[in-house]
UniProtKB/TrEMBL annotation:
Organism of this sequence: Thermostichus vulcanus str. 'Rupite'
Pfam family, one: DUF2283
InterPro entries found in the cross-reference section: DUF2283
Top-rank taxon, per record: Bacteria
The protein's name: DUF2283 domain-containing protein
Length: 70
């Protein structure tokens, strides 16, 4: 059974978080300083966060491969 996707935005902190799973995990850096991936103990991506998300509207879109090369 699929778990619900959870999206949380903090306008004051300019921070967006998307979670695919409620499993315990930790944040890990990606190649883009604005994106962090949330991974479980086995390294599976279970979500991601974007810092300074309001900048996406002002600049070109950011792209990232989650779980790439891990």
């Amino acid at each position: 059974m699929a778990q619900p996707l959870k999206i949380w935005f903090d306008p004051e902190g300019d921070f967006l978080e998307v979670t695919f799973s409620e499993a315990p995990g930790y944040m890990r850096e990606t190649a883009d300083d604005a994106i962090l991936e949330r991974v479980d103990a086995e390294g599976h991506v279970i979500g991601f966060s974007i810092l300074q998300v309001s900048q996406l509207a002002k600049n070109k879109p950011i792209t990232a491969q989650l779980g790439a090369g891990r």
